[in-house]
Specification:
The protein is α+β, with helices and mostly antiparallel strands and 722 residues long. The chain has 23 helices and 21 strands. The chain is 51% helix and 14% strand.
């Protein structure tokens, strides 16, 4: 009987926590639409993890650090590139935390970084998960939270673009089921109702489920009257004078690829509209075009002419650079009408499958699609392209004698550029002696030094402001355009030819098909980065934007890799030794090319060890009550002295309290014994209490009292829920 009741309680708790999480999920769904919050799936997974830990009811000393580590890991995944165990990011995070705590106490809320704001949001989710546990398990009341949820979703639906039609249906169904379950539990606890054989009371719940299902279905299919009140949003905007236009006539726009970059700055909101899917073997960024003229407010192209596409795009890499040929398939979704080609690098062939004319801007590298002078939007096309591997030795030894054509085009800077921009470039690179290390120093400069990735609180340069100068010295808040433009200008200030590149990041992995991997790219993946020119190498990409990582391949030196690859087995060696040597060669190559592989293995070992440790901790916490009961039974089972009964009885009271059967403050031992027997479905506690009182309150002490009571005492301990 007790085992059946334990199963029922387990199922009840799991059902309550599951429904509670689904109800709270409705609060998180609109975030990606009504705000600039990205990666909302991380918030959902973190919340689910919190509910899961609450269900297992781990002790505070264990659950608190686990939740803390999970929160820090989530922050790392959202804001910091690289490995979680690369503690350089942790130093920045701690310094950012310290700085923002100061801003918080000073009331300078506008200076709070995105990392700190997200940290506060994670803490809020943490607190709400605790409150949900309190409402569901302790008080058995959820109506107030349900009501607030309905009001919240209704307001969001009214005043934003979020469509809450389905959300309201889900909330009503989940909420009513929760209310019904909690009412059943309250009746069971208040009236002392126990269900036969510990089974789940389906016959109690079925009427509730039928009523909710019928009401929801009827409400969904019933005809709806037209709105009786006009939409309040236009009225409120008109009344407040807010027509959605921001400063300088620029409002909050949606992220995505745009043609006009002459005026950069200002906030934007995320847009997960799918743009295209691609089947590709090599992972990388998607190029559209480059721009060469920095105006102080944005970017423009000095050449607008188009020439016939000669079968390959602009030469990005010189002959000495090792490249690997790939092919890919591009499928446009039709949500965005692009009359140009999106490609991953130096294209050698384009197959459209249609009678389409291809034209190219010789400076920007943008390839247009048209037919008889009219723009053509392709549904799909195939590409062949080359992906480079850059030798850092070649880059460091590259000449500083740049072709005159490149120097005239890609060293341009406006006369109005403040001198402190060039002074900052000199300061950042003061310890470097070659353009490549100088470029790396500038790229790494944006990792710290107070720069924060921000999409909403982003300034628009005024009439007398320079876009890059404002970002570097005043706001330090911005997104990819701010970071990439600043690095391009800093490189040009040092005399290194550089240009601004537009396109998309790699997108989200969808599926694998043989050697190909399918990626989906949305408007959220619109991005800009930097390319710098190195003689005898070509155009090399750099990624200064916080939270993004460079997808290009770099090796220390080609010769080292070639020496490793050209090693041949000694004919005198046995066949087994030759096989072993060949198996070891890839490991040696990885070790000479970069130390990252060994680091990744050490990280994996560390993750496995931590996982084993957490599993052991979980098993220890999960079963510690069972082990504790066995320890106490073994301790008192062999005792026959007069004090054994008294000590064992009070140890039994302690165990009962530990297992949730608590004694009231004014409750007598006999009253408590009745409560225990009801919970454990036995009569042993009343009998044991009677003997205890006879021995110690009435003076009827006998030597064999404990011997007679051992069996009752042991049975009670064994019946407790583990």
């Amino acid at each position: 009987m007790q085992q059946a009741n334990e199963k029922t309680d387990w199922f009840y708790a799991l059902l309550l926590y599951g429904l509670g999480f689904l109800l709270f999920w409705e609060w998180l769904r609109p975030l990606s639409i009504i705000s600039d919050t990205g990666q909302s799936e991380i918030f959902i997974l973190f919340t689910a993890f919190l509910f899961l830990l609450s269900y297992f009811q781990l002790p505070f000393w264990l659950s608190f650090p686990i939740k803390g580590v999970a929160m820090v890991y989530a922050l790392h995944e959202m804001f910091f590139p690289g490995s979680f165990f690369d503690f350089l990011w942790l130093n920045y995070f701690l310094s950012d935390l310290s700085q923002n705590v100061g801003f918080l106490f000073d009331g300078r809320f506008d200076r709070l970084s995105n990392v700190f704001r997200t940290s506060l949001f994670f803490v809020l989710l943490w607190l709400i998960s605790y409150l949900m546990q309190y409402w569901l398990i302790q008080t058995r009341r959820i109506f107030l939270f349900l009501l607030v949820t309905i009001v919240y979703i209704s307001v969001i639906d009214t005043f934003t673009t979020y469509e809450a039609d389905q959300a309201i249906i889900r909330i009503v169904i989940i909420g009513f089921v929760l209310l019904g379950l909690l009412q059943i539990l309250r009746i069971q606890e208040q009236e002392g109702v126990s269900f036969s054989k510990g089974r789940f009371p389906v016959y109690w719940l079925m009427p509730l489920v039928i009523v909710i299902a019928f009401s929801s279905l009827f409400g969904y299919i019933a005809p709806k009257a037209e709105p009786q009140w006009p939409d309040p949003v236009p009225f409120l905007k008109k009344t407040t004078g807010d027509d959605g236009v921001g400063n300088n006539g620029d409002g909050i726009s949606k992220i995505g690829y745009g043609e006009d970059d002459s005026q950069l700055g200002g906030p934007f909101v995320m847009d997960d509209t799918s743009v295209f899917t691609a089947q590709i073997k090599d992972r990388g960024y998607w190029r559209v075009e480059t721009k060469d003229v920095y105006t102080g407010k944005g970017w423009e192209s000095s050449v607008r002419d188009r020439v016939m596409f000669e079968g390959s795009t602009e030469t990005l890499f010189e002959d000495d650079v090792e490249v690997e040929a790939f092919d890919m398939k591009m499928n446009m979704t039709g949500n965005e009408e692009f009359d140009f080609i999106v490609h991953p690098g130096q294209v050698t062939s384009i197959e459209t499958g249609k009678d389409v004319q291809l034209l190219e801007n010789p400076l920007t590298g943008k390839v247009f699609t048209q037919n008889l002078g009219e723009s053509v939007v392709l549904d799909n096309y195939n590409l062949e392209y080359e992906s480079p591997t850059f030798s850092e030795k070649m880059l460091r030894e590259a000449s500083t004698e740049y072709p005159e054509r490149l120097a005239n085009t890609y060293l341009q800077l406006p006369e109005t550029l403040p001198e402190r921009v060039g002074a900052l470039a000199e300061e950042i690179t003061s310890e470097e002696d070659n353009p490549y290390d100088q470029a790396r120093a500038i790229e790494n400069y944006f990792v710290g030094n107070g720069f924060v990735y921000e999409t909403t609180d982003v300034a628009i340069p005024g009439e007398n402001d320079d876009y890059v100068d404002q970002f570097l010295f005043e706001t330090q808040l911005g997104y990819c355009d701010n970071f990439s433009s600043s690095m391009t200008v800093l490189l040009r200030s040092l005399g290194i030819p550089a240009r601004w590149v537009k396109g998309f990041t790699e997108g989200e992995f969808v599926a694998a098909a043989g050697d190909y991997r399918e990626y989906e790219v949305t408007n959220n993946n619109a991005h800009s980065w930097v390319e710098a020119y190195f003689p005898e190498v070509g155009w090399v990409p750099f990624e200064p934007t916080r939270g993004f990582s460079n997808q290009a391949n770099f090796v220390s030196d080609y010769n080292d890799d070639e020496a490793t690859n050209t090693e041949t087995p000694d004919p005198a060696q046995s066949e087994e030794e030759q096989v072993q040597q060949q198996e070891q060669q890839p490991e040696e190559k990885a070790a000479t090319g970069s130390s990252s592989s060994s680091f990744e293995w050490s990280v994996w070992y560390t993750v496995v060890l931590i996982g084993i440790f957490l599993l052991l901790c979980y098993l220890a916490v999960k079963n510690y009550k069972k082990w504790l009961k066995r320890l106490i039974i073994s301790k008192y089972k062999k005792r026959d002295d007069d004090k054994a009964l008294s000590e064992a009885y009070f140890r039994l009271l302690w165990l009962l309290d530990l297992h949730g059967i608590k004694r009231g403050a004014n409750q007598t031992l006999r009253e408590y014994a009745v409560q225990v027997d009801q919970k454990l479905h036995t009569k042993d506690m009343k009998e044991l209490t009677r003997h205890y009182e006879e021995n110690y309150y009435r003076g009827k002490t006998t030597n064999d009292s404990w011997g007679e009571m051992k069996k009752l005492w042991e049975n009670l301990i064994k019946k407790m829920q583990s």
